[in-house]
Design a protein that fits this description.
mainly alpha, 334 residues
């Protein structure tokens, strides 16, 4: 059976111990999917695995706001980032919420008929552009901002990990493209998706996080602590680059306007001269453009799977951080 992993060979989930096993246990209980490859691919670096799961759990699953609304926002993010794996996943999860007609309308490439749903989808899409949301009221109540903003930022990270390190097939043979398969898969998750989750339970999986590191938009919720933990864990990947490469990558991200790079990858360093900087930038701006040649040019005996995960996570989170720092913080109820 073909492996879903492009460049790494994670340990079989059943052999997991310690924090990795604890994350898998929470995933099965609260996400409803037993050891999903989206997170298994992060298992070589347990602190990134745990904090990525924590951010998704505390925002999408346990955070404020409707699950349907947050799935729409996450779908919008995934469309903007050109991540077909995640687009298909959120379509199936909309079936799990019970919104079957909405899920199928989106699967056909149509916009939601409901105006509120359409605004949430569009909001998710617009989060790819730094500062692109502007000062207009958000399409959700102010008190739900931690759930919606946390969900959007979680999937800006997850989209990039998935596009860089996994194949595009959510199910073997792209079976999710069939309506009956999408509907059935969603229905198997319905009980878990519709069950309330207690906020904060993923925080026990994290290293100590200073509440002062949490962003203001999180409003003192567990979402902010999870975000701070993912920031800390991901930014450690900067150690894999020398100072010049680090400065180059952060300089390009500082000027990024949300656009997808040209086919010529203008402005990207060559894989022969600066392979690490190239990989980090691709992970940030166009992870779907990472090739076997890009990874091979960077690989060294010391660059094992955990190093690749760290470098990709570093690039992915630089993009997330650029988007988060440009957020307009909502103060108006719609």
């Amino acid at each position: 059976m073909p492996t879903p992993f492009r460049y790494t060979e994670p340990l079989p989930p059943r052999s997991a111990t310690g924090r990795v096993a604890e994350v898998y246990e929470q995933l099965a209980r609260d996400f409803g999917i037993d050891r999903p490859v989206t997170f298994v691919v992060l298992s070589p670096v347990p602190e990134i695995l745990a904090s990525a799961w924590a951010l998704m759990r505390e925002s999408l699953i346990a955070g404020p706001g409707s699950r349907t609304g947050k799935e729409l926002a996450a779908l919008g993010v995934s469309l903007a980032n050109r991540c077909p794996f995640c687009v298909d996943a959120h379509t199936m999860l909309l079936h799990a919420t019970g919104d079957h007609a909405l899920a199928e309308r989106l699967a056909r490439g149509q916009r939601p008929a409901n105006e509120e749903h359409a605004r949430l989808l569009e909001w998710g899409e617009r989060t790819r552009v730094p500062g692109g949301l502007g000062p207009e009221p958000y399409p959700f109540p102010h008190e739900d901002a931690p759930g919606y903003v946390g969900t959007a930022l979680a999937f800006h990270f997850i989209n990039r990990i998935v596009s860089a390190l996994l194949t595009e097939n959510l199910l073997p043979g792209n079976a999710q493209r069939f309506r009956t398969v999408r509907s059935l898969a969603g229905r198997t998750l319905a009980r878990t998706v519709r069950r309330p989750a207690r906020p904060g339970e993923a925080l026990a999986l994290l290293d100590g996080v200073d509440p002062g590191e949490a962003p203001a938009w999180a409003g003192g919720t567990a979402v902010g602590l999870a975000y701070a933990a993912l920031l800390r864990a991901s930014m450690r990947g900067a150690d894999l680059l020398d100072t010049d490469d680090h400065d180059l990558v952060e300089g390009v991200l500082g000027d990024w306007d949300g656009a997808h790079p040209s086919l010529a990858l203008t402005g990207f360093p060559g894989r022969r001269e600066r392979p690490g900087a190239r990989l980090a930038l691709l992970a940030a701006l166009a992870p779907y453009r990472i090739t076997d040649e890009d990874v091979a040019a960077w690989r060294r005996p010391e660059h094992t799977d955990d190093a690749l995960v760290r470098l990709v996570a570093y690039g992915a989170f630089l993009a997330v951080d650029r988007l988060e720092s440009a957020l307009y913080h909502p103060t108006t109820r719609t």
